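Morning, I've got a small favour to ask if you have a moment. I've dropped the whole record in just underneath, so have a look.
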Amino acid sequence: MIYLVMGYATFWLVTFVFVYTIFSRQQKLNQELIILKQLVKDENE
């Protein structure tokens, strides 16, 4: 029974870490996109 609980806890921990890393990467990409948009805007003016 303990192995089932440990496996379940490990599965959810890995899932949450995976989702957090995806969210973090998405935030960084959004920041880079904002910077690139500003650079293109400044270059066109």
Summary: Residues 2-44 form the longest helix (43 residues).
